[in-house]
Amino acid sequence: MPSLVAIMIPLLFLLFFGYILSIPGCPQKCFCIHPLTDCRHANLNEVPPDFDQKTETLILNENSLSLIPRGAFQNFHNLTFLDLPLKLFKKTKKLVWLNLADNRLDLLDINIFSSLEKLSYLDLSNNRLQMLTSMFAGLSQLDTLMLASNYLHTIPQGVLDSTPKLKILDLSHNKISHLPNCLFNSTMNLNDLLLDDNNFTVIPHAVFTIFHNLEHFSISKNRIQNVLPFVFVSKLRKLDLSSNLLSVGWHLCNQRMLMMDPIIIIFQLCQLNIPVTALLGI
Questions:
Q1: How are beta strands 216-218 and 192-194 bridged, if at all?
Q2: How far lies 169's CA from each of 107, 135, 255, in Å?
Q3: Rg (Cα) of the chain, in Å, rounded?
Q4: Chain segment 55-78, per-residue pLDDT in tens
Q5: Which end of the chain is more exposed for a tag (fewer CB within 10 A), N or C?
Q6: Per DSSP, what are the bridge partners of residue 195?
Q7: What does the H/E/C string look like for 200-256?
Q8: Is the dihedral of CA 163, 168, 170, 171 positive or negative?
Q9: Which of 30-39, 84-93, 246-255 has the lowest mean pLDDT?
Q10: Peptide bond preceding 180: is omega within 30 degrees of 0, i.e. cis?
Q11: What are the angstrom distances between the C-alpha of 241 and each of 15, 228, 231, 254?
């Protein structure tokens, strides 16, 4: 005859496990014990709306997720770790537009977008990304990449090598102070580069030497004190240098450059935004 202890232990385990699965904010078939919500093998087709908002670690691997809607994780104020399925986009090879903005993503797997060969628009803005891996590998048709309002301090060299058709890159509202010289070797056809509200003290070298098709360059709200002789590309039509540390002396220097090459600066440039104090030197 089994002892009372032998009977009670599995019974208590079942009761405890059942409690964990039934606590408020724990989706069906998920395992929840604060601060962890583990939904592996839960047969999920979409991100459940009833997660505990205090969750810090959320695991969604080994499911059948086909869609992550905009703002799916925006109420997870304590979320620090999010594990998405590697095959999340494997069956959506025709996808051309993907918006993952306004979530709390802090790290994405290096292969998560590799099957999206036709993707032209990717928005990862307003997340918690602190570093970029080779997550853009395979995105040969990517035209627009939005990375604004994250926690990026730098962009690793080579991270854009697979995006030769990139036209619009938004890196504004981050903490970037420097970009590698070879970062843009494969994206020389860039039209729009937005670097507003970062920590730049000088304008990235590529703006002068690589981007011959650049039409819109914005680097406002940084700490730039001067600009080298005005050699911005000839197709530039909108330039924003406002809210920097540019002095009157800088503008007087470039006034000579304006006279030296008026075709590039006056006839092509349609919109120029510089500090009001700098205008005093004109």
A1: parallel
A2: 19, 15, 29
A3: 25
A4: 888 888 777 776 666 667 777 777
A5: N
A6: none
A7: CCCCCCHHHHCCCCCCEEECCCCCCCCCCCCCCCCCCCEEECCCCCCCHHHHHHHHH
A8: positive
A9: 246-255
A10: no
A11: 64, 13, 15, 13
Query: Under a CB-based contact definition with an 8 Å cutoff, are residues 226 and 250 in contact?
Result: yes
State how far the Cα of 269 lies from the Cα of 267, in Å rounded to an integer: 6
For 207-236, how does the pLDDT look when each residue is reduced to its tens digit (9 = 90+)?
777 888 899 999 999 999 887 655 556 688
Q: Which tens digit of pLDDT belongs to each residue from 122-141? A: 999 998 899 998 889 999 99
Distance CA 44, CA 204 (A): 45
Fold of the CATH domain 1-85:
3.80.10
Beta bridge partners of 98: 122
What is 89-282's CATH number, 3.80.10.10, 3.30.450.20, 3.40.630.10, 3.40.50.280? 3.80.10.10
Kindly indicate the confidence band of residue 281, based on its pLDDT and cuts at 50, 70 and 90.
very low
**Model's pTM, two decimal places?**
0.70
The answer to whether 177 touches 201, Cβ cutoff 8 Å, is: yes
From residue 142, give the alpha-carbon distance in Å to each of 66, 163, 208: 21, 6, 23
pLDDT digit string (tens) for 140-159? 999 999 999 999 999 999 99
**DSSP labels, 255-276:** HHHHHH-HIIIIIT--EEE--H
Same fold, 1-85 and 89-282: yes
Going by the DSSP 8-state scheme, the letter that residue 131 receives in this structure is: -
